[in-house]
Amino acid sequence: MLKRFDDNSRRILKFPAVLPCQDVNPVTLLRSLITLSNFITNYQSQLFATQRKNVRESIRQIGILSMFFCEIMEQDVSGLPDPAVLCFSELHHSFQKILFVFEDCTRSGARVFILMKSHFVATQFLTLIRAVATALDILPLNSIKVSIEMKELVEMVAKQARRAKMEVDPDDDYAMKRVMLILNQFENRFEPDPIIIKRVLYYLGINSWSECHREIRFLDEEISLVSLENNERDLHLLSTLAGFMRYCRGVLFENFVLENTDDQSAGRSNLEILSCLNPEDFRCPISLEMMIDPVTVSTGQTYDRVSIEKWLKSGNLICPKTGKKLATTELVPNLNLRKVIQQYCIDHGVSITKFQKQSRDISSTILPGSPSSAEAIKFLSEYLVRKLRNGTEKQKSKAAYEIRLLAKSNIYNRFCLIGAGAIPLLLTRLSSSDSTIQENAIAALLKLSKHSNGKKVIINNGGLNSILEVLKNGSKQESKQIAAATIFYLSSVQANQKLIGEIPDAIPALIELIKTGTSCGKKNSLAALFGILLYPRNHQTALSSGIVPLLSNLISCSDKPEIITDSLAVLATLAESFDGSDKIMNASSLPLIIKTLQTSPSRAAKEYCVSILLALCNNMGVEVIAVLANNANLIGFLYTMSTNGGSQAGKKARSLIQVMHRFHETSSSGMVANWDASRIATIHSC
Asked: What are the ranges of the ARM repeats (predicted)?
């Protein structure tokens, strides 16, 4: 009966309490009330950074009522009058909400946010305690068999609940005003006194780098959620606090020992793993628009929430994509996919607001969120650069790690760090013999290379050779794969593609990482090569380094679908030239491409296969076309692609179909010998 919500399923300061049904069994209701009361009273051993007086009073009153419920359970409760059951139902509803408030006041990372919401939280306490008093007003105590002493205690609780003054604690109010003063100083471009800041943090129990980091993680998660709701007031507050706490983490906690935070590991598994995958994968199968709030249904398929909710409200109880009946209409948020889509938009400057008004405009990542946060980040950036330049080795290591975290947040933070001069100093740390310093420096450069100014500064300061040195001889595998990712972002500028290709060891080093690296290293190297090979003159270097047999082996042997797709993407780029097509044919890769087209579940992989086949036909002529035309099953897959694929893939599939039809026509008339590639090019251009 008692539904529990964890931190991931319930938003902070949202109280989704459920009123017990009217025909609930009194025994079940009382047992649940006792359990709920115990949950609440057990919080007396928890640390409450704020709202201490309100919490103590709530626990005291609920503790008395818990004893009352236990004493009732010792009697025969089958004859409880209806008003008593109604009272207990209302109490159960209020207790759920009180428990939610307790959870939020003790939630990890939410201390500064709850402090700044002190008036709202105190109002919630007052409302809920008054709701307890109202429920007790309808309780027929004389009809309930408990001791006289217990009845007197319950009456006392009812009176005290009606008169309770659940107010903001004076100490909380003072701390809140201190924070507001600090934020105003930031906004007025005045760096606050660190002693005042430390006193506020000490009051909240934020006494270490890790505790400060948890506050930032919570605020970032809330910013991500609130931005989708278009709630400008809360977004302003959250952004302001996030900037403040980042300043605190970077400046105040100098005696920091590097630890493997969740952000670091998440960076390795997500943000630093690149892909050549088509952003078409981010589109909802129903609306064909980019998903803003992806949710997964019982069949495992993912849709945008708005689209699938409309589908279900129309009375459709089957999965639109699979046609299978849905076991339940429950929609499970796909948080991982949502983060990937948001990061893709940040990195590539894609605006998804035109698809969904509630979505966060991508330009908001260029802005700091509030004037106070803007100045806090500027002060912090300048401080970190000073430590990189003049600090001890420990301070330099910590500064590099702080820059890595700060640059991960949004475009504005990267802009400030680049403007403060972080990049040249980070480049000097790449040669460090300390593997941790090297990793943090290259990871920070990766984040900054996503900014257009960052790319320019890295190239202008000769950073390309330093990054390639990490790629070849980095002290850790992680550093090598991050270096490959950095090269990918640098290669997004056309002039850089030429520069990278002119360095003799660049392309061979990426190919070597594909051979020896982890899955992450392979993916990053494939993505980097994909970017570099957009410059046609780089193809010959890659071909002479043996890339085609390597890619063919990955396609045939890898158990990672994304690596297969990325390998096909690179192969499709190489196939555009005659030399690339010739190497593919010499590696006997044609049957492999045909098989992959027919068996791969990935739409992107199929599209790349079609691109490769068309390029092979265009460059190699009848040698390839004859093989395709004699494959009876291939034409069916091409017809499917021509109607279900993307616009470009459909066009290429139709071109291949025309090529095969023309070949059959000419072969039946005995004119195959006169077939040439120029006719294929003519078909492709139609």
From this structure: 421-463
Per-residue pLDDT of 504-533, as tens digits, reads 999 999 999 999 989 999 999 999 999 999
CATH of the domain at 334: 3.30.40.10
pLDDT above 90 covers a percentage of the chain that reads: 56
CA-based R_g, the chain, Å: 32
Q: How far apart are CA 376 and CA 382, in angstroms?
A: 10
**For residue 331, what pLDDT is reported?**
87
pLDDT tens per residue, range 566-584: 999 999 999 999 999 999 9
pLDDT at 4: 52
Number of separate domains in the chain: 3
Give the global pTM. Answer: 0.78
Return phi, psi of residue 574, to 5°. -65, -35
- Look up tokens 């450069």; give the residue: 445
CA distance 530 to 518: 18
Domain for residue 49, yes or no?
A: yes
10 Å CB burial of residue 35 (0-12, 13-18, 19+) is middle
CA distance 589 to 555: 10
In this structure, the number of other CB atoms found within 10 A of the CB of residue 4 comes to 9
Q: Which residue has the tokens 């809920």?
A: 128
The tokens of 501 are what?
A: 């290709």
Neighbouring C-alpha atoms within 13 Å toward the C-beta of 475: 14
Instruction: Please tell me what DSSP assigns to residue 359.
Output: S
Gap between the Cα atoms of 342 and 488, Å rounded: 19
At a CB cut-off of 8 Å and minimum separation 6, what does 410 contact? 346, 365, 366, 368
The pLDDT of residue 637 is 81
Q: Domain range spanning residue 304?
A: 279-354
Q: Which amino acid is at 412?
A: Y
> What tokens were used for 481?
């794969």
154 and 284: one domain? no
Which of 354, 377, 410 corresponds to the end of one domain?
354
Q: Which residues pair with 304 in a beta bridge?
A: 294
Give the closest residue to 510 by CA, choosing from 533, 492, 493: 533
636-661 pLDDT, tens per residue?
A: 888 887 776 666 777 888 888 888 88
Is the Cβ–Cβ distance between 396 and 437 less than 8 Å?
Answer: yes
